[in-house]
Amino acid sequence: MARGKFITFEGIDGAGKTTHLAWFRDQLERKVAPSGRTVVMTREPGGTPLGEALRDIVLHQKMDLETEALVMFAARREHLAQVIEPALARGDWVLSDRFTDATFAYQGGGRGLPRDKLEALERWVQGGFQPDMTVLFDLAPDTASERRSAARDPDRFESESDAFFTRTRAEYLRRAEEAPYRFAIMDSSQTIAAIQKQLESLIAIL
After folding, report:
1. Cβ neighbours of residue 167 under 8 Å, at least 6 residues apart?
2. 15: which of 38, 88, 137, 173 fits an S-S bond (Cβ 3.0–4.6 Å)?
């Protein structure tokens, strides 16, 4: 069976990507099931027992910025080795809530870690491996903040300032401009129905 495809959802906290994940997975399953493939849904940081343990640490425990980036890439290496790469080799499709673009956006754009350090880690951990498609849910930070305030108790990323999320969003958009062949940007200020219509169009071309 041919290699599967790797699709990631990205966006600042409150942009709405999680709202569409399960729906998108269901649509993908309808597309790939006739060929005997399945859709593996996962997340970062996380996706493996070790990754989930690291997720809990990084979301709730303060640490040095470089330590934070190293933890993210450690969880990612395990995620690739244990989940993503085996699934793609089987011919299955993988849908992940965040991947490396999030590290560039949050630790790089938001927190200010130099890009060259992140690029070195990216090369080491994943070589040239990148998603086949990245769906970026884009939303103004003040609107995203209003959405976050109506949700659960925030973790240490979700409780960051609008200025932090402005920088994070800018880095996401820079990454999208740098790799337009794999990014699809969704205007998250639209209705759920309007966004799902656009997502249907993306699934049709996968």
Report:
1. 109, 110, 112
2. 137
95 contacts 24 by C-beta, under 8 angstroms? yes
- CA 136 to chain centroid, in Å, comes to 8
Predicted TM-score of the model (pTM): 0.95
Give the C-alpha separation, 98 to 6, whole Å: 11
Per the DSSP assignment, residues forming a β-bridge with 184 are 135
User: Are the C-beta atoms of 40 and 33 separated by less than 8 Å?
Assistant: no
pLDDT tens-place values along the chain, 206 residues long: 799 999 999 999 989 998 999 999 999 999 999 999 999 999 999 999 999 999 999 999 999 999 999 999 999 999 999 999 999 999 999 999 999 999 999 999 999 999 999 999 999 999 999 999 999 999 999 998 888 776 666 677 877 888 999 999 999 999 999 999 999 999 999 999 999 999 999 999 99
Q: Long-range contact list for 16-22, CB < 8 A, 24+ apart? A: 16/137, 16/139, 16/147, 16/188, 16/195, 17/97, 17/135, 17/137, 17/188, 18/97, 19/192, 20/137, 20/192, 20/195, 20/196, 20/199, 21/95, 21/97
Q: Supply 92's token pair.
A: 């299955």
